[in-house]
Structures are given as C-alpha cells and as structure tokens.
From TrEMBL:
SUPFAM superfamilies: NAD kinase/diacylglycerol kinase-like (SSF111331)
Record-given protein name: diacylglycerol kinase (ATP)
EC supergroup of this enzyme: transferase
PROSITE patterns: DAGK
Gene Ontology molecular function: any one: zinc ion binding
Annotated source species: Abyssobacteria bacterium (strain SURF_5)
The UniProt record lists the keyword Zinc-finger: yes
Length: 363
C-alpha cells in the first residue's frame, strides 16, 4: 500500500506542476525542470524549499515529491506562496536569484546542502531566514540547534509538523565565518587527517563497486572508518603556525613537529556529533581552533561522539579567537562543513579566518 500511495502522490504532484509549466522527473531521484515562461514566476516565492535528492540515502528524492503535494494544500503556505527546488537543477545564478527573492529558505539535506546555500547567501544582496530539515549523515548544525535528528521525514505527518514548526519558529542568529574572504562556513573548517578522509570518501562514493552496496549511514560510517585506516599515517608538514586575536590580545603558536589536524569550529559539535567544544556558542562572534598532534588524540576526540563520559585528551591544544591566521608549510587537504575543499584551497598556504556576518536561522 505504501508503494501505491507513493505512486499516486507523484501522479497528483505531476498534474499540479504541469498546470504551472513546471516538470518533475522522478527517475533516479526527484529533480525539477522549469519551463522558460515559469522561470521568473518560480523565483519570486515567499518560501523556497531547497532539496538535495541524494541526501538520506535517497530519502531526499521522496521528500521532494511529498513537498510538492504539501505546498499545494498547506494552510500556512497558500496558493503560489512556496515552491520546491532541487540543488542538482539550480545553476549558480538561479540559486542566488532565488535567495534574493525569498523571505525564507528551507534546506532539506545535510550539512553540505546547508553550507552550499549559506555560501550563496553570502553572495546575495539579501539574506532570508533559513530553516533546516536534517536528512544528511552528520547533521551537526541541526544537532547544535537541538532539532530532531531521528525523525522519519518520509512520514507525511512528521514532515508537515516539521514545516509548521519552522514556519512558526523565532529565528536566532548564526555566525558565518570566512576563509580569505572567499569561502564561507558555519559549522567547521579543517585541514589534515580528517580532511583527507573526507576527500577519499567523496572519491570512493563515485566507485561503481561502492554503488552496489546498500545506501545509508551505516555504510557511510564504514567507508569513513576504512578511509581512516588507509590514511592513518597522514600528517601536516611542519611548521604549522597559528596566530590569533582575542579580546584585544594577540597570540602565536608554532608547531615544529608534524600535526594530525587543525580544526576551526563554530559549533560545539563536529563530524557527526563529536563533542569538540561543548561550551561554544553559535552567535558570539568567536570561534575555536583545535590542533590535534597525535593519532591517539584524534581517536579520543572522535570517540567522544560515542562515549559520553569521555572528554578531550590532555595535551590537545585549543584556543578561542575572533580573528586567526593559519600558516601552512605547503598544500594540505581541507574540508568545509564536511565537504572536501582541497582543490579550492590547496594553493593558499596562508589562511585568514574571520567572522563575515550572521544569518537568521529557524530552530
């Protein structure tokens, strides 16, 4: 019955969209094509749902189909007040235009989807409020905001209740940090061991052999573990120099021995719930830098995700900053909010971290 209901929902959704010259393709995931005459009309909506159809082991595609129907009859959204888009069908210019024309964006996906939206928001003349339906692997931002993480968003009642909550929520401020004024993040940015794992994970997922495996968080975590074993010997070449400004004072830390990772965080959690800095705030204009020097330290840091009684190991270096510069000896693998950024940042040996601004985010 559930399969029949899903098919009927898609048929109903297609009829609704055809009236507006908007076409939905469900093969291989829900994606949206817009007729030329409908393009401008769609961009000018009060609410815009931005869905990553690949998130949640494909749940995003099903949620996109459900949202098409919910948008049609939801009492808070109204006729013509909202539209649904998927990230794979929006160009750079279209996404920025959509952001500038909307009053609220609701991202359906993981931290990578949210990061992609925030990066475009920083390029827009206007920044709408942002809501999140967490359907990713890590969901660190949603975790830090206290949003429900284990909800079944493919359940119609749960999805509707989540939309109601986001539309009624009073937004709070979330700091946005910048790297060299060109790259933006709200969760974390790191270089080293964890970043090369993320990079290899992204490459591994493209393998035809991996595609034969069942999709889901368990398989993702297993691949992360295997990539960690593969790169167990990776280190950042010395020297690594971290210079910070905090409360009017300046401090310089030099690491003359190889280090495993340098992690810049805006949230109390990192990498799927690792409690890297429980006292961190999202809106205080400050961020934390953690330097992990040994493999043992890194393992303990990650284990805080699973073992609540663990705390960060002795000897780990943590500092709070309002501005920072990180000087690397050479190119290093980097990640931004869980997405590999090696190609974008490999040429920059001097990384300047600043607070760029803030956005309103619904909880």
């Amino acid at each position: 019955m559930s399969r029949l209901r899903w098919v009927l929902e898609m048929v109903e959704t297609s009829r609704y969209l055809n009236k507006r010259k908007v076409y939905v393709t469900f093969a291989g995931g829900a994606s949206i094509d817009r007729g030329l005459e409908a393009g401008v009309e769609i961009m000018q909506r009060k609410y815009a749902f931005i869905v990553n159809p690949a998130s949640g082991a494909g749940e995003g595609a099903q949620i996109a189909a459900m949202l098409m129907r919910i948008v049609k009859d939801h009492p808070r959204l109204g006729e013509g007040e909202a539209a649904v888009f998927t990230v794979d069908r929006l160009s750079e210019d279209e996404m920025i235009s959509l952001i500038s024309e909307s009053e609220m964006l609701i991202a359906v996906g993981g931290d990578g989807t949210v990061s992609q939206l925030i990066s475009r928001m920083m390029q827009s003349k206007r920044t709408p409020a942002l809501g999140v339906v967490p359907v990713g692997t890590s969901n660190d931002l949603a975790r830090a905001l206290g949003a429900p993480l284990r909800a079944d968003f493919t359940d119609d009642r749960v999805l509707r209740a989540t939309i109601d909550r986001l539309l009624s929520a009073r937004p709070i401020l979330l700091d946005i940090l910048a790297i060299n004024g060109r790259f933006f993040f709200c969760n974390y940015f790191s270089m080293g061991f964890d970043a090369i794992i993320v990079s290899d994970f992204a490459q591994m997922r493209k393998s035809r052999w991996i595609r034969l495996l069942p999709r889901g968080r368990f398989v993702n975590n297993l691949i992360y573990f295997l990539m960690g074993v593969k790169n167990a010997g990776f280190r950042l070449s010395p020297p690594v120099v971290v210079s910070i400004e905090y409360s009017g004072a300046e401090k310089r830390l030099t690491f003359d021995q190889p280090v495993r990772a340098v992690i810049v965080t805006n949230l109390p959690v990192y990498a799927g719930g690792t409690r890297i800095n429980p006292g961190a705030r999202l809106d205080d204009g400050r961020f934390e830098i953690t330097v992990v020097e040994t493999l043992f330290q890194f393992i303990i840091v990650i284990l805080t995700r699973f073992l609540r009684f663990l705390t960060l190991p002795r000897g780990i270096v943590q500092v709070r900053a309002e501005r920072a510069e990180i000087q690397l000896h050479g190119p290093a693998p980097c990640q931004i909010d869980g997405e590999a950024a090696f190609d974008a940042l490999s040429a920059d040996h001097l990384l300047k971290i600043t607070r760029w601004g803030s956005i309103r985010i619904a909880v």
